Amino acid sequence: MENTSLSAASPENAELQVSGLTAGYTSVDVMRDASLAVKPGEVVLLTGHNGAGKSCLVETVFGLISPTSGTVTWCGEDITGLSPRALLQRGLVLVPQGGGVVKNLTVWENLQLIAPGLTPDRSDSANSETNQAAYRVLDQVPILAERRHQIAGSLSGGQMRLLAIARALIAQPKLLIIDEPFLGLSGTSGDLILDLFDEMLKLGDRFSVIVVEQQLFRLTGRIDRYYVMNQGQIVRNGDAEELWSLETEELWSLS
Fold it and tell me: Does 19 share its domain with 141?
């Protein structure tokens, strides 16, 4: 299958549009001329080998890295180079590689960073939209409520990743970016993440998702479109049906 064109990489009605983005760490550009788009309600996969530039791309979109060229627009607004705080206010949320939980706080204290009035007995104000979102998420991952007094750093890798994603969902994102949610997890821990991912998808078109992942088999039937990075560039993209139609050997070669 031949690589798709740039027009295919930029679908109509995209709410996130990344155009010609170049960025890197210190003085070295590790990503060059990358373009990517996400439509409302889409789940978009970003894959590629280690060191391909995937994390650099999403960190640049989220304002953690300043690009040397290119633009990022969100719902028609140029958000290139805005701070993560400003992007959070616009509904963009990043779960970084490794999760990003505060390890010396308890599970509940981590959740309260997003929903300050959260209480285990649900006695806080019913008018708090954020807290109601938190309770909906906790209904999906009851293990977090059960372990609310446990220090986050003492959780298993899968449980910490669950906590990080749950915290992001409580923020009620419009675009949720998850970087390598299954990285380094065992089958059982990975299944916990997958269960939450499936519950997340049931929310329908409430928000869009970019998931950076190499374990493609875990996302079968769960994405709408895909992009492949190699050596800092987007080298391939297309619809999910196209991806899953590839022979196994060719599919594995992408990541």
Answer: no
Total count of domains within the chain: 2
Quote the distance between the C-alpha of residue 33 and its chain's center.
Answer: 21
The residues facing 72 across adjacent strands are 18
Nearest to 46 by CA among 241, 245, 249, 235: 235
Residue 29's H or E segment, with its range, is strand 28-38
β-bridge partners, 243: none
Question: What proportions of the chain, in percent to the nearest 5, are helix, strand and coil?
Answer: 35, 25, 40
* H helical segments located in the chain: 6-9, 54-61, 84-89, 107-112, 129-140, 142-146, 157-170, 187-201, 240-244, 248-253
pLDDT digits (tens, 9 = 90+) for 160-218: 998 999 999 888 899 999 999 888 777 777 888 888 888 877 765 578 999 999 988 88
Residue 192 lies in a domain: no
Nearest to 170 by CA among 135, 146, 194, 211: 135
Predicted model pTM: 0.89
- CA-CA distance, 197 to 130, in Å (whole number)? 20
Which amino acid is present at 30?
A: V
**Phi-psi label, residue 83: left if phi above 0, alpha if psi -120 to 50, beta otherwise:** beta
What CATH code is carried by the domain that includes residue 248? 3.40.50.300
Query: Is it the case that residue 3 has pLDDT exceeding 50?
Result: no
Q: Are 149 and 107 in contact (CB under 8 A)?
A: yes
In terms of domains, do 3 and 86 share one?
yes
Domain of residue 15 covers 1-91+173-186+205-255
Residues 116 and 230 in one domain: no
